[in-house]
Amino acid sequence: MAKPFRHSRNAGFRISLLTIAISAAPAWAEEAIERVEVIGQAASIDKALREQKSADSIKSVVHADGVGQLPDDNAAEALQRIPGLSVERDQGEGRFVSVRGIAPDLNSVTINGTLVPAPEGDRRAVALDVLPAELVQSLSVVKSLTPDMDANSLGGTIEVESLSAFDHDGLFYTLSGEGSHDTNVSKNSPKLSGAISDRFSLGDGTDNFGVAAAFSWQKRKFGSENVETGGAWDFDDGARLGEVEQRDYEITRERTGFGLNFDYQPDDYSNYYLRTLYSKFKDTETRNAAGVEFADAQASGERGDAEGWRDLKSRQDTQEIQSYVFGGERMIDLWTISGQAGYSQATEKDPGGIAGAEFVGDFENVGFDGTRKPRVSVGGDFYDPASFTLDEVEWEKVSGKDREKNIRLDLARDYDLAGNASQVKFGGKLSRRDKTSDTKVWVYDDFSGVGLDGLQSGNVDYSLGNYGNGISAGAIKDLIGGLDRDAFYDEENSRINDFDMREDINAAYLMNSLDIDDWRFIAGLRYEGTEFEAKGTGLRDGVYESTQSRIRYDHWLPGLHARYQLSPSTAVRAAWTNTVVRPTFGQLAPGFAIDGGDASFGNPDLKPLESMNVDLGIEHYMGRAGVVSGFLFYKDIDNFIYNTDLAGSGAWVDFDEALSFENGSSAKLYGVELAYSQKFDWLPAPWNGVLLGANLTLSKSDASIEGRGAKRTIDLPNQSDTVGNLMLGWENDRFNLRVAANYKSSYLYEIGSVEDKRNDLYVDDQLFVDFKAGYFITPALQLTFEAQNITDESYYLYTGRHAYNAQYEEYGPTYKVGLTLTHF
Question: What stretches of 418-472 adopt beta strand conformation (E)?
Fold first, then answer.
């Protein structure tokens, strides 16, 4: 093994290192062959497949390679390479993960065995882009839950494991530096990360205590360009549009992550651990918008009168996640006792920013051209600041917190059943979760003819049409800074969106595993009792009301798993499981607003989603990094949730509009999941360095909804019929290359109305292609290059039919160069 570089404090270290590497290249070639076996793509895939093969459940795994790095920038983007998984993107970055077409809010995420709360006030889904890849040792997705696992996922449970000192033999460290270039805003961004771990001897033990630490920091500058209609199409008289808006985003996203983990293994029968994780995610965003609302909805190419506007949003949003997990395991004769206590907290804070500064004006001979990417057609007066006067400035301050505390105890005993190895396992878990959201809003108006002159910034760089100048955030802040903010406090929007929700879950289970020849069976029963309470404020015709809702429900969830080993490398798996998923906090929100014949409100009385799941498949492991598998899956879902208009029925029979959420009766999801991976190391050079990975998931869903006396069948929201990945890689002792493509088909995003599907919103299909290359300058030093979104894929949301825009957004490619120093 090559000698490590231990000293890096002097300024000339990197230059000296490169000089030594170039001059010594022939000497380390033989050593590098051994090293690549440890850190190559195939080795990482091999390790993941070994874990997948031995699992009792149907499971897919992504492992960090030997240098402590996942194959992508954040946990969400690494997970999209797994069969059946796709990601929802925010400004082009992978953020939320969908499993087998199931929406992110209906899957759960754990870090080191404890549930991760969600920073966003209305969601359960965890934004996995807050987890830098360097803090993660492995990611797995369990698609068929065993009774000893939390049952709160419909598609799968994502398990995040952070770095442990026992992942490596002795001292390990890695240090990386990276620079990236965003083509949309032509800005460069830095990134630094590293990890270190080592083992020590305590008492009479040998290397029985381990310490591991990891950090990551990135400050990324990027942006996007957007044109959207919000789905404001009228299809009763052709296709006529009510309004259209152009948006330009400039964002600085700063990520900071740190993890510190301790492991103690005093003997061969026990181990104890402490896992800590801190992640901070700060977005500083400036959004300029310009749009028109037509006096009468009009078709493409027509011209008419319109109100025009220019609008600014300037805010800073900070999200933090903290996780602390203490646990251990002890074997006593035939018994194994394990336990864990966890505390996690997620917060979201916006200390105060411009939620909207809108200038308005009236214009003639205004129109648009095109329906997919409509271009606004206006006269020169639209670009004259004197044409606009300030209508209002909205200032918003947001604070939210989501805390989860849990304690778990498991006991297992091995025993002999008629000559067959068996184990009985039982235990329980107590979880206590509290989620709060507090919003304060001030709306400044009556500016007495204040115009855009003197409040504008420079020209906005916008490629989807003409734009003109933006609005200065500093000038707006100066304008309202001297006003009496108490006089402009918006009590309605400051109170009805606030809530305090408490969710307590008590769980217990009993399961038994049995090995009979080549069969392995697991049968068990899980109980979960839930108590939910929500407090908030409603507004009914100008009068505020305190709201409080309590609900309790119990679920008995049986499960059966079977695995048959056809050969040492081939297994058939089957599973019958039952799961329960609580509604999102936004759907459960206790606040409401009722004004005459219009109402909007959450529904704290929603029932949880219940799903009966069946999985059947076969796996065959072959050669280096090799597997071929196929699985069939079926889900029978009760009480799925959808947005609807309840006007005309029940308590809302006399209302014109009553927007809320309802439980549907039932939905079905079924599909097939295929995967293949292999390294062609039996071929002659250079073909023996080729790696190929591919997976494809085909699914179909059916669900029924009703409202306003109508009923129809829909696909499950967020469910793509087709999800696929293709990875082509190559590696030898010095180089490694990878091209990866990720595809997901279009899916239903939001229901327009139950009685008319023409205004349903759909997300168009997407194909993202990324490229990554690495070169080992020395066995310890690797140079990397990466190109993300090289096909310049866009995000397109359409209304009813593909031709009619709801939102179109472009991001552009991103290019990265990095240098990583590693010692094993």
Answer: 420-445, 456-459, 469-471
What pLDDT does residue 24 have? 33
> What count of other Cβ atoms lies within 10 Å of the Cβ of residue 176?
21
Q: What is the pLDDT of residues 137-164, one digit of tens each?
A: 888 889 999 999 999 998 889 888 888 8
Residue 408 inside a domain? The answer is yes
Indicate the number of domains in the chain.
Answer: 1
| Chain centroid, CA 580 distance in Å | 20
CA atoms within 13 A on the CB side of 803: 9
The mean pLDDT value of the chain amounts to: 88
Q: What is the DSSP string of 38-53?
A: HHSHHHHHHHHHHHHH
Q: In sequence order, what are the residues at sequence separation of 6 or more whose Cβ sits closer than 8 angstroms to the Cβ of residue 359?
A: 309, 310, 311, 388, 389, 390, 391, 451, 452, 471
In the chain, % of residues over pLDDT 90? 65
Q: Output the pLDDT for position 666.
A: 85
Residues 384 and 423 sit within 8 Å (Cβ to Cβ) = no
Rounded to the nearest angstrom, the gap between the alpha carbon of residue 556 and the centroid of all alpha carbons in its chain is 29
In the predicted model, is pLDDT for residue 260 greater than 50?
A: yes
**Helices and strands per DSSP (H, E), number in the chain:** 6, 42
- Can you tell me the distance from the alpha carbon of 780 to that of 766, in angstroms, rounded to the nearest whole number? 38
Q: Please check the confidence at residue 349 and state whether its pLDDT lies above 50.
A: yes
Q: Of 487, 663, 499, 495, whose CA–CA distance to 593 is shortest?
A: 495
Task: Answer yes or no: are the C-beta atoms of 582 and 610 closer than 8 Å.
Answer: no
**Could you tell me which of 389, 503, 494, 514 has the C-alpha nearest to residue 445?**
389
Distance CA 144, CA 577 (A): 7
- For residue 4, tell me if it sits in a domain: no
pLDDT at 34 over 60: no
Other Cβ atoms within 10 Å of 307 Cβ, number: 15
d(CA 157, CA 514): 24
Higher pLDDT, 624 or 605: 605
Q: Which of 754, 788, 807, 729 is nearest to 43 (CA)?
A: 729
Q: What per-residue confidence (pLDDT) applies to 93?
A: 76
CA dist 77 and 308 (Å) reads 39
> How many residues are present in the chain?
824
Q: Which of 340, 254, 641, 291 is nearest to 465 (CA)?
A: 291
Give the Cα separation of 255 and 283 in Å (integer). 9
Phi, then psi, of 55 in degrees rounded to 5? -70, 145
Spatial separation of the C-alpha atoms in residues 613 and 555, rounded to whole Å: 15
Report whether 620 contacts 630 (CB < 8 A).
no
User: What is residue 132's predicted lDDT score, i.e. its pLDDT?
Assistant: 64
Q: Does the residue 352 lie in any domain?
A: yes
Characterise 35 by phi-psi region: left (phi > 0), alpha (psi -120 to 50), beta (else).
alpha
Domain residue limits at 117:
13-239+257-265+274-390+398-823
List the beta strands (DSSP E) in 268-334: 270-298, 303-332
* Rounded distance between C-alpha atoms, residue 650 and residue 361, angstroms: 42
Q: What CATH number does the domain containing 704 carry?
A: 2.40.170.20
1 in any annotated domain? no
Q: Token pair for residue 461?
A: 């760089």
Give the separation between CA 639 and CA 578, rounded to whole angstroms.
14
Q: Side chain identity at 383, as an amino acid letter?
A: Y
* Phi-psi category of residue 780: left, alpha or beta, with phi > 0 → left and psi -120 to 50 → alpha: alpha
Higher per-residue confidence, 68 vs 322 = 322
Tens-digit pLDDT profile for residues 420-468: 999 999 999 999 999 999 999 999 998 888 999 989 998 999 999 999 9
pLDDT value of residue 21: 31
**DSSP 8-state symbol, 753:** B
Q: What pLDDT, in 10s, does the model give residues 553-589? A: 999 999 999 999 999 999 999 999 999 999 999 999 9
